[in-house]
Every structure is written in structure tokens, then in C-alpha cells.
Amino acid sequence: MTARSFPRATILGYPRIGRRRELTKALDERWAGRLTAREFDATATAIRSSIRERLVGLGLGRDDSSIPESFSLYDHVLDAAVTVGAIPRRFDDVVNAREDESGAAFALARGHGDASPLAMTKWFDTNYHHLVPEIGPDTRFRASSNRLIRDFTEARASGFITRPTIVGPVTLLLLSKAEIDAPEGFLPFSRLADLVPAYARLLSDLSHAGAEWVQLDEPALVSDAVADDADRLLAAVEAAYRELGAATERPRLFVSTAYGDIGGALASLAATPVEAIGLDLVRGTIPSRIDSGTRARLADKALVAGVIDGRSVWRGDLEAALTTAADVRRLTRSVAVSTSTSLVHVPHDVSLEQHLEPRLSTWLSFADQKVQQVGVVARGLASGSSSVRGELDAASAAFSDRLNAPGVRNQAVRARVSLLGARDRYRVSWNQRREVQKREFALPLLPTTTIGSFPQTDRIRRARTRYLGGFDSAETYVTFIKNEIADVIALQEELGLDVLVHGEPERNDMVQYFAENLEGFEVTLHGWVQSYGSLCTRPPILWGDVSRLAPITVGWSRYAQSLTSKPVKGMLTGPVTILAWSFVRDDQPLSDTAVQLALALRDEIADLEAAGMGIIQIDEPALREMLPLRGVDHEHYVAWSVGAFRLATAAAKPETQIHTHLCASHFGVVLDAIKGLDADVTSIESAHSRMEIVDDIAASGFDHDIGPGIYDIHSPRVPSVDEVTKLLVRAAEVIDIDRLWVNPDCGLKTRGYQEATASLRNALEAATRVRQRVVEQRAASASAG
User: Fold this and answer.
1) 539 with 511: CB under 8 angstroms?
2) Which of 31, 105, 691, 769 is packed most tightly, with the most Cβ within 10 A?
3) pLDDT at position 785, please?
4) Of 615, 698, 610, 606, whose CA–CA distance to 661 is shortest?
5) pLDDT tens across 116-160, in order?
6) Strand 120-122 relative to strand 583-584, pairing
7) How far apart are CA 425 and CA 651, in angstroms?
8) Predicted structure pTM score
């Protein structure tokens, strides 16, 4: 096999939700029982077909394998696990009973009956969430799904030769966790040699179906999972790909990497028979630094140069991209131009955003525009820069215009930043604050609360749409929102929660809501990206210096507090999360932008305190997702991210109780950062991962109050009282119960009221049981003493 047949222009993946979110809407309809399996499959088929046609229209080839067949109904990691038979035994009966493959996958993703769903976490350092496969010593790997073959055959029948795409065996295992009953110390990666034959069988089946190339995504090769045990792991990687490459019946193999520098793994892959290797040249590999030995091995391979940023919405510098691609051509005879990552991280099409200020639109590039940019650079590489001079100059002009536009630099904001000192980031000590807050709030043992949002019902969404569309007056909308808040407060009082929230009915999204009320941001109407499953977000565009012109949350919070004698939390989104869930300017360090956001939030906290709010929560669920993939970069990140949070909160009075929330966050990985936040109370996802984090918390010496979640909001399941009690008891076994709070994993926005209310009742009953048990034990101990 030769590498010459790899297409000269490609992408690593494309948004799969549909230009108008057709997939996400169909998913919700399917789960609600309003679509049959056959109707749902027809919708998915239509979306796949439209994606292929769209990509050809944007310049990719119809029959040269340049289009990746990367569609997924829910999650590509889940797809890979199901494809090779990595299904936990608790789902055996469910999977065997399902007539449709998608229904079986959804059972793993959402849970079914007593079978809890797979855990979920962030996909590398992005805002995409993937499901975490569970692997045990006895997991029987086998080619157990025909999804890839079905999609490829479907495409071929319509005249397309596409490139089947799947998460590679190394990344699949490195992202997996040990099955629940696996022996202590078992590592899923130890099963690599057992997993490779299942991939080999899949490759053989794809070859028989007519596939010419297959894309195996191995982004884990850029992470610390490789760097921490490089010699052993890279030897296993090389052995695995030598075995796959040695198969006689297989398509050509393209191993893609993304999200950073492939490092030493490049030499290992270069030593195997794989025909093409992808490099992230935006955030990773520098061609001139590749050693001579590796260069020699790369000479007969195709290198897929990821020079178009797959995660950014900025138009970028195409001249620089072309120069980098030309540098790669010095390494091999065959170079393909590509995006640096899958385009699943960006919206579909700038042209849909007709409301945006025209000047801003010229600075932007969404998925469709990035496909076109790939084509421009590929043509320039093949025929010389003069052949695309017009496109290169237009991109350079837009880049220059963006840097010099009014509002990009606000001198008042920059002057305020320049006056900051070290003392602006510190509160009085935790011990002092805790004593003051105990007297202030007099909360019971195991105080109960929720994370913030309550269900965003169709009624709320319709009311917001009518108001924004001009059909209802501001007065009508405000009255509606006040009624929603009153209902949420009444429900929480009826349930018996100790610290209440206002439910956030006025917020479309926890980041967009703030972006709409801060200078320096712009929001889109159709800029949806997938977070997980059917959940999508519209990340705002942060293009200039950030400032707050007026209070944002104070009015609603003050109203909610007026309805109850119990404390109501003021709810803010933290600076790191606003950065992580926005498309951020790239003309200055993230740390500089974080300081500007922190100052805006600092002002909001002061106004909330003045309005009488004694408890304020600053959510930082994205703290983990922005953690750099390489450990060498962690210290700098922790310093500025923690510094931004502390700048926002440091001026709060000692009696003001500052909460923060983190989700899908592997506590141990960001332990130093969480400690450094110095929040009075930290709530964190743990029910979804079955309370795995509490041992890390206990071992760390973390001494502030902590609320490990006891209700998994990612699943429609209503956990029983006994199930939730076990989780709470598990937490109390290793954490001082006087520091424990009781709360769900995350906000309730995506759940319905019926399931959320039932789940909260069970959680509160569990808290009452454990609380009473502790009180009785202490009374007995005091009596005996």
C-alpha cells in the first residue's frame, strides 16, 4: 500500500447535530416516546446524507475518502465501546432485549431500570462531554456493532466514498475506567493486546465493504497519560499498530491526533505500517523540532497537517497556515491539509448569523468556513501562494481589522487592572469565616441545597421566545418569571431544603446570560455546539475587553429572597467557566481576560451583598476542562485560574458564605486548584461516578465544607432512598460529617419537574435518615460519657 492516495484536503470531523439541531430535537422526541425507532433512524439517515452533500459543496471530494464518516447519535466514545463489545455486565439483559442498536446505546448513556448509566467526563480540555467506558479483566472484546459498516455502505450507495472514523484502541482504553468489580489496581490499558484483534476484525469487515481508508482517532497520545509512563506505553502503542498494520485485509490506516503535541508518540507511530499520521499544528507539534530519525521514517507516509484551528471561531491567519503546511512538506512527499481537531467544537455556519454586526462577521469562521479554508490552503500548497493570493490577503485584512477595532482595548478596564495588588485576592482566614457563618446561618447538620437551576420547561422557553420576538411586553415577561421563581421557592420550602435557589428561569444559559449583560461579548442565534447527547450550548463570542455596566442578577435574587425566611443563594458563573464556554479572543493571554471577568463579577458580588444576599455561589464547572493536557503546564494554569476566582470573591465580607460548584471534574486531578479557590463550600459531581472522589477528598486534607453530589442529574432515573442513603453514608465514612452538605450532582435544568421532585424527595429523606442516625449516636455517646 502507498500513502500517495490520501486526499490533499480533509477534516477530522464535522458537527453532527444538524444545522437547525435536527438531531438533538429528534433525540428528545425519541426519548419522550413521540418518535418511533424507525422514524428516528430516518431522521438520522437524512442528517448524515445532508452532511455528505454539504461537505462536497464546500469543496471536499465525493469519492476520494476526504469526508470522514464521523456521525454519532450520542457520543463517539460510547460508539467505539459498543462497537468492540465493551459493555458492562449490568447492561447485558438490557442490551440483549433491545431490537435497535441505538436504543441499547442510549441505555448505557442514560441508565435503565436499576442499571446506572456510564459516568461522564470532559473530552480532553474541551467543553464536550464523553461517556467513560468500563473495562474489566473479563470484558469480552468483539466486533459487535455494524454501525461503521452501515454508514459507509449507506454513503457508497449514494455515490460517496467516505472515511470510516472511530476512536482508536489506545485512546479508548486510556479514557476507560475499571469495571466496578475489577480487582484493585486493575488498569484497562492492560487489555490492549486483547482489544487489538477486535479492531483488526473491524478493519477487515470495512475492507470487504469497500473502505479505502479508516481514521483511528488517538488524541490520548498528546496527554500526560503517555508522558507519565512513556517508555512502557509507547512500546505498547507501537506493538498495537504494528499488529493492525500487518493485517493483510484492511483499508489504509490514518491515525489522527489532536489537542496538543504528539511528542514521542510520533516516533512510535512512524515505526509502524500505518500509512497516514495526523498532527495538530495549531496547539502542538512544531515540524522543525522533529528529530532526524523520525523524519526518515515519515518520508513514505502521508502527513495530515492540522493547520486550520478546529476549536476557534476566528478566521485566523491563512498565510501562516500555508507556511506551516509547507514546512510539513519538507518531511514527506505526501501532505494533506486538515483541521487541527474535529469541527464538532464549533457552530455550523457564520452565514446563518444575519443579526451579527457585519464587521464582526468578517472576523469569524465556523465549521463550513473552516472546510473552505482547508481547501484554500490545500490549493496554495499544491499550486503556490499566488494561486490563492486573494483569499490569503482577505484573511490577513480581517485579522488586522479585528486587532484594531474599537472596544477591543478599553483603557478604563486596563487602568483598573493595572492598580491591582496581591491583597486584592485574599479574604480573612477560613477558620474565622466559618465561625462567623455558623452564627449567621445556624444551619443543621448535613445542610441541604441544590446547585442552582430548576427545570427549564417548554413553558419557560415559549415565554422567553415570545418576549424576545416582541409578542409579549417586558411587564408580561417579568410577571411570568416572578411567578416561576415564586413556584420554585414554594416547592423548595415544601420539600424542606435548608438553602434555597431561585431556579434561574430568566437564564437561557449559565454563560450566555452573563455575556448578554457584559461589554466585550456578542451572542449568536444559531451557533449551537454539542455538549453531550441532546444538550447543546451557544457559546458567546468574547471579542473585546470585558466590563459590567450595571447589576446583572441582583433584581431576581432580591425578589427570591423576599419570598422566604430561609437563605437564598445568589448565583453567578465564574470567570474560568465563562472563558471555557465562550469563544475567546486570541490576541492576549487567557489569564488577562480572566482578570477582566473577575473584576466584573467582583462588582456583582458587592451589589448582591448590598441587596442582602448572605450566600453567593460562583460556579466553576469548567475548572477541570481547561486544565492543560501536559503536567508541565499545570502550575501556570492553576495560578491564573485560581487567582481570577479569588479576585472575584476576595472583597466579600467574612459573614458572606461563598459557594462554588464543579462537575465532571475528577477531584484529584485539580485538587490544588480547588483548594486554592478558598470557597467556603464546594459542591462537586460524585453520584454520576458513584462517589469515587471522596477518597481523594479525604486523603488531600481538604478542610473546607464539601457537598459531594448524591443525585445523578444526567439520567432520567429516580434514585431510591436506599441508593442515595448509601452514597451519603459512603461520603460520611471518610469525610467529617460536620463539613458535609447534601446536594445533587449539578443543576436540574435538563430534567423534568416530576423526576426532579421525586429525586429530591428521596435525597432529602436520605439526609434525614443519616442526620437522625448521627444525632442519636452523638446523644448515646454523650450519655455514656
Assistant:
1) yes
2) 105
3) 66
4) 615
5) 899 888 899 898 999 999 999 999 999 888 899 999 999 999 999
6) unpaired
7) 8
8) 0.91
Classify the C-alpha dihedral 603-608-610-614 as positive or negative. Answer: negative
* Burial class for 97, CB neighbours closer than 10 Å (0-12, 13-18, 19+): exposed
Tell me the average pLDDT across 760-768.
95
CA–CA separation, 533 vs 107, rounded Å? Answer: 12
Tell me the one-letter amino acid at 321.
A
- Residue 629 pLDDT > 90, yes or no? no
355, 764, 655: which is closest to 527 by C-alpha? 355
Per-residue pLDDT band at 99 (split at 50, 70, 90) = low
Answer whether residue 101 shows pLDDT above 90.
no
- Give the number of other CB atoms < 10 A from CB of residue 288: 8
Alpha-carbon distance of 375 to 10, in angstroms, equals: 8
Rounded CA-CA distance 4/276 in Å is: 10
Catalytic residues: 714
Q: Residue 421: count other Cβ atoms within 10 Å of its Cβ.
A: 6
Smallest CA-to-CA distance from 70 within 13, 145, 151, 11 is with: 13
Of 687, 704, 690, nearest to 760 (Cα)? 687
Measured CA to CA, the distance from residue 152 to residue 601 in angstroms comes to: 49
Determine the Cα–Cα distance for residues 20 and 41; give it in Å rounded to an integer.
17
Contact 662, 674 (CB under 8 A): yes
Residue in 14, 30, 10, 139 with CA at minimum distance from that of residue 85: 139
User: Which grid coordinates belong to 492?
Assistant: 423548595
Among residues 173, 285, 167, the alpha carbon closest in space to that of 215 is found at 167
**Which grid coordinates belong to 347?**
457552530
Residues 275-290 have pLDDT tens digits of 999 999 999 878 888 8
Residue 691's Cβ-count burial label (10 Å; 0-12, 13-18, 19+) is buried
pLDDT digits (tens, 9 = 90+) for 700-745: 888 999 999 889 888 888 999 999 999 999 999 989 999 999 999 9
The three cell numbers locating residue 566: 430561609
CA distances from 715 to 113, 460, 473 (A): 11, 22, 36
Rounded CA-CA distance 690/37 in Å is: 31
- 513, HSE (Cβ side, Cα atoms, 13 Å): 17
Pairing state between β 657-662 and 583-584: unpaired
CA distance 45 to 43: 5
Q: State the first-to-last Cα distance of the chain, in angstroms, to the nearest integer.
A: 82
Q: How far is CA 409 from CA 375, 397, 413, 430, 584, in A?
A: 33, 19, 8, 37, 14
Write down the residue that cell numbers 416530576 correspond to: 754
Percent of the chain with pLDDT over 70: 97
Is residue 118 within 8 Å of residue 104, measured between CB atoms? no
Dihedral of CA 695/696/702/706: which sign?
A: negative
Q: Are 566 and 500 in contact (CB under 8 A)?
A: yes
pLDDT at 78 over 60: yes
CB contact at 8 A, 168 and 255? yes
C-alpha cell at 439: 452564627
pLDDT at residue 690 greater than cutoff 90: no
In angstroms, the Cα distances linking 15 to 51, 530, 582 are 9, 8, 17
Closest CA to 260 of 633, 638, 586, 629: 629
**Cβ contact 488:782 at 8 Å:** no
In the predicted structure, residue 1 carries a pLDDT above the cut 50: no
CA-to-CA separations, 544 to 163, 409, 591, 601, in angstroms, rounded:
39, 6, 14, 17
Question: In the structure, what pLDDT confidence band is assigned to residue 4 with cuts at 50, 70 and 90?
Answer: very low
H/E element holding 547?
strand 541-547
